[in-house]
Amino acid sequence: MSKQNDIEPSVKQFKPPSPVMVLAVIILLAALASYIIPAGVYDRVKDAHTGKMVVNPTTFHYIAQKPTSFLQLLTSVTKGFQGGGSIIAFLFVVGGSLNIYSKTGAIIAGLGALVKKMRNRGILMVPVIMVFFSICSTLAGCNEEYLAFTPLIVTVALALGFDSITALGIIFCSVAAGYGAGCTQPFSVGVAQGIAGVPLFSAIEYRIGLFIVLVLVNVCYVMYYARKVKNNPESSSMYELDKTKDLGIDVENVPELTGRQKIVLCLLAFNFIAIIVGVMKFDFYMHEIAGIFLLTGLIAGVLCNLKANDIADAFVEGCKGMMLPCLMVGLCKGATLLLDQAKVMDTIVHFLASMLQSFPSSIIAFGMFMIQDVFNLLVPSSSGQAAISMPIMAPLADVVGLTRQTAVFAFTLGDAFTNCITPASGATMSYLAIAGVPYKKWLRFILPLIAVWWIIAFCFLTYAAAIKLGPV
What we know:
By secondary structure, the chain is mainly alpha-helical.
């Protein structure tokens, strides 16, 4: 198997800062800002359509400075966890429940069976696997789960005359389409909409339209590249490296999908159908959605004969996997509380609005996207980014005349498109290491597609701003 040292030294030597360290600095900067940035406030008014309190953009005024005390700084962390409690609880329950599904082996066996079935169908493997992976990503936020299949997909791709970059393209482009649309993705869309105060998983019809466009574009791009490599193997930048690879994986030994596991996969599909129906027809929110995940996860464990202790351990393990996102939500909420207490949050929003109001609303929405896309290079966690960005982007949308739904849409797109190139993502670098693809070679393949994603983002954000995409 290709080892970590196949990655070029410039990337291997890069050690990104810990996300917790980044957020600690943000908290300190928030406290420091209370001494530097003038305090100011907008008046809040009740929106006639939604009943929510929103910013009145014509009422900003400065007030007396309220600098952060040392005690406020120290207590901001615990208060942040309290303030983000509902989101943190949601992430824990969903993460724990999904891990019960994982422990049944149904997801791994299902994906493995799909790859095994498609191995003799050449180029058709690309669209079939990409559509399946994209659906998993847009419904359940799957990303790291595909690490287990990377050696298998690389093996099959090489056996079919493609290269390692084709295998990575199948995975990364699927995740980008899934996260970019985020139809019922709880870790970015769910958290962002919760913070922005819009109905959970609302505007799903618009997201489904984006999902279809992204999947079509990504499948065509990867298939075009795969065909080119198939017809002329030496055209691949991985030609020499791939000849040296022996991943040692027998495709015939992929675990068989049992009858119980098939039922579990059907249950997982029912889980997302129930969520969509509940959100659209019965106004389900975080508590109800978390409850559906918990119920179906427990049923899945029982169906696959997991013992009670095994189910409990799987749930706890899944919660552990959510620890960093939950920490980031709490710490970001702490920083937001400091800015609110010091009355400088509205000043920041007023400053950004003053810069942006001279531009058309579509450009403002795209500007939000660009900021988020760049920020994603430093903080690749979807939940953490939502906790940092949405407290500012939501009221900014009020001031500049965008709907909060559009602001969430800009965030979702910005969060998705640079995940596949950020060295700060452990998952991204793990994929490259397992596949043995040097970082620069991967960049040469993916950067043209990222440019296409930006064009798609501009078109969808322009239209969202024009129609005032709601509900707000």
